[in-house]
Design brief:
Length: 412
């Protein structure tokens, strides 16, 4: 049994204010931290997190039946194994690669240009609330072929789904509210799925509706679950990553200058942002049997949370891990968006994020556009910076001032 530290809790306000302040002590003194209030274990070392995410027989995704399936309205990719997982993952991946990705990049550019245009003359923008969050939703709606006039409703319903999935200790009232929003999203998608079955297009929902597994088309429930799965996975981290990228570059002006002078460095800056401040901080698993992990015995049936932020700051995996450095030699930009990534922001193993290539294209396209439009970027004076979230984490807002370099984005 891991040593229980009654004085420290990852559920405390102190931890929520700045988790990174506590990661070193966790890795060194409490690597398998037990939270009695939620009967769960928190794993912080890079090697232990990697083991949990790659030993699929010992650490399963069984808990997602309770943590995700009720609001996804069916099983998600991470719950699947074997031939079913391989086949359905390929269907989703094809929706984010090749010709589909080229079309999406054009749509990303168009959406970003439209959103940023009204702010260029003002010289001030909140990169989270004015730009990043609405952009992430609009881009994902384009991929799925959903109507952007429904943006507000879908964003509200999606907020409930995300709250349920990422909530560590929800009250019964919060659970009911989240489930209500998930049911409304399912009801909205039902006629869309019916229409795409009759008249499929080039969007991802059409691809899911027309795809077959073992010669059998997926049911409406399966398609619904995968659509909501894509919505949450594509929207939740995107606005956080973009805002965190700009925060770190503003805080490191010499590196910002280098990226401006050499845009080829932008992917490295994105990769280092994902390592340094991963938007997804926790990935849950469940033990299939009693297991010794990090020198402690974790019982069968236990929930284990992989602490991605702590693992990505482990000095056993990265030199000077608490420094933001786009030139670090132990990251490897080329592999940072693949299954061979050294950082764990996309997870690793069988259930690594299917949208890694899309995430890179989205953030690279948008950040490149913003850097070409905004000169002399700096934090807005007098605005306090604050990050929120235990499961997923990012800036509550990122208000920046700038000098417009151009009044409109250049065509793609």
């Amino acid at each position: 049994m891991p040593q229980v530290n009654a004085r420290f809790s990852v559920l405390s306000e102190d931890f929520a204010a700045d988790p990174y302040r506590h990661f070193s002590r966790l890795r060194e003194q409490d690597a398998i931290h037990y939270e009695s209030a939620i009967d769960s274990y928190f794993v912080s070392r890079h090697r232990d997190v990697t083991r949990v995410l790659t030993d699929h027989e010992t650490f399963t995704t069984e808990m997602l039946q309770v943590r995700a399936e009720p609001v996804m309205r069916g099983p998600v990719l991470a719950q699947m194994t074997g031939a079913e997982h391989t086949a359905k993952r390929k269907i989703v991946v094809r929706g984010f690669t090749g010709r589909a990705l080229e079309e999406q990049i054009r749509a990303i550019h168009a959406n970003a240009a439209e959103l940023v245009a009204p702010f260029l003359s003002r010289g001030r923008i909140d990169l989270v609330n004015d730009f990043g969050r609405p952009l992430a939703i609009d881009v994902t709606l384009d991929v799925l072929g959903l109507d952007k006039k429904d943006h507000r409703r879908i964003a509200d319903w999606l907020g409930g789904v995300a709250e349920f999935v990422t909530g560590i200790d929800l009250s019964p009232e919060q659970r009911r509210r989240c489930l209500d929003r998930a049911e409304r999203l399912e009801a909205y998608l039902a006629p869309v799925i019916g229409e795409r079955r009759r008249r499929p297009g080039d969007d991802l929902i059409s691809k899911l509706c027309t795809a077959e597994f073992d010669g059998i088309a997926m049911s409406d429930r399966e398609v619904t679950a995968l659509v909501i799965n894509v919505l949450v996975a594509a929207v939740e981290p995107a606005d956080k990553t973009l805002a965190l990228l700009f925060k770190h570059l503003i805080d490191h002006p010499e590196q910002l200058g280098q990226v401006r002078r050499n845009p080829a460095l932008l992917p490295a800056a994105i990769a280092e942002t994902l390592r340094y401040t991963p938007p997804v901080q926790l990935i849950p698993r469940q033990t299939e049997r009693d297991v010794v992990l990090g020198g402690s015995t974790v019982p069968a049936g236990a929930t284990v949370f992989c602490m991605i932020g702590a693992a990505n700051r482990d000095p056993a995996a990265f030199a000077s891990p608490d420094a933001f450095d786009i030139h670090r030699s132990d990251l490897g930009t080329a592999r940072s968006f693949t299954a061979a990534a050294q950082h764990l922001a996309f997870g690793t193993g069988l259930h690594q994020c299917v949208g890694a290539a899309f995430a890179r294209a989205e953030i690279e396209t948008v950040a490149g556009m913003l850097l070409s439009l905004l000169d002399n970027i700096r934090h807005t004076p007098g605005v306090r910076y604050r990050e929120t979230g235990l499961y997923t984490r990012g800036p509550a807002s990122l208000c920046i001032d700038f000098t417009p370099a151009r009044t409109a984005p250049a065509p793609l």
